[in-house]
Amino acid sequence: MSLRAASLSKSYGASLLSPGKCIFREISLEISPGKTFGLMGPSGEGKSTLGRTVAGLEKPTAGIVYYKGSPLSGMKKTEYIAFRRKVQIMFQDPTDAFNPGKKIEHSVSEVLTLLRVPKSKHVRKTEELLMTVGLPEEVLTRYPSQLSGGQLQRLALGRILLLDPEYIVLDEPTSALDVSVQAQILHMLKEVQAERKIGYLLISHDEAVIRFMSDSYGELESGKLKIID
Question: CA-CA distance, 64 to 96, in Å (whole number)?
Answer without folding.
Answer: 29
